[in-house]
Amino acid sequence: MTSPRTAELVRETSESSIRLAIDLDGTGRSSISTTVPFFDHMLTAFAKHALVDLEVEATGDTHIDVHHTVEDTGIVLGQAIVRALGDKSGIARFGDALVPLDDALAQAVVDVSGRPYLVHSGEPAGFEFHLIGGHFTGSMIRHVFEAITMHAALTVHLRVLAGRDPHHIAEAEFKAFARAFRQAVQPDARVQGVPSTKGAL
Fold first, then answer.
1. pLDDT the model gives residue 200
2. DSSP string across the chain
3. What is the mean pLDDT of the chain?
4. What pLDDT shows up at residue 2?
5. C-alpha to C-alpha distance for 137 and 181, rounded to whole angstroms
C-alpha cells in the first residue's frame, strides 16, 4: 500500500456548501468548521481517535435547522472515505471498540464491507429530543451515522451500553466509532490483496 490514502471533495447544494479533505494515514490533526459547534466537537473527536487528518469547512441553512449541514457533511465524509480507501487492498477490514466517557459506554464494530448497513441501538428514551449544547438535537447522532455508513459503504453496529448525560453518550458513540474505524482501515502487512474471499469489497 504505497499510494496516499487521501481525498478532497466539494459538495454544493441550495442547502449547504461542504469542502472536506481526509488523510486516512494521518496523526489525528483536524481543522473543523461546520457552524454547528457540537458537531465540530464530534468531528474533532473522530479525527483524533481514528488517527485521520481531517479538514472540514461547511456552511448551510442553520437558521432553519442544523439538519442539512450535518447530514450533508456526513454524506461527504462517507464519500471521501470511499475515495481514500481505493480498492481496499491490504486493510484489516474489521475493527471493534468499547469506549467509556464517565457515565456513558458505547461499543462500535466496523466492517469495510462495501455493503452499507447500520445497526444502532441503546440510546435512552428521550435522547433524540434533547438539545445538546442548546442547538444539536440528539436525533442527529443516528442520522449522521446513517449518512456516513451509507456513503462510505460500511457495515456498522453501534450500541450505547450505558449513559445518563446526552453529551457523554454522543461523544462515546463517536469515539467508539473512531477507534473501530481506525482498526478496520489500518494496513495489515499479512493481508495479501483485498481481504475477502470474493476478491472485492
1. 82
2. --S--EEEEEEE-SSEEEEEEEETTS-S-EEEE-S-HHHHHHHHHHHHHHT-EEEEEEEE-TTT-SHHHHHHHHHHHHHHHHHHHTT-TTB--EEEEEEEETTEEEEEEEE--SS-EEEEE-PPTTGGG-EETTTEETHHHHHHHHHHHHHHT-EEEEEEEE-S-HHHHHHHHHHHHHHHHHHHHSB-TT--SSSSTTS--
3. 96
4. 62
5. 24
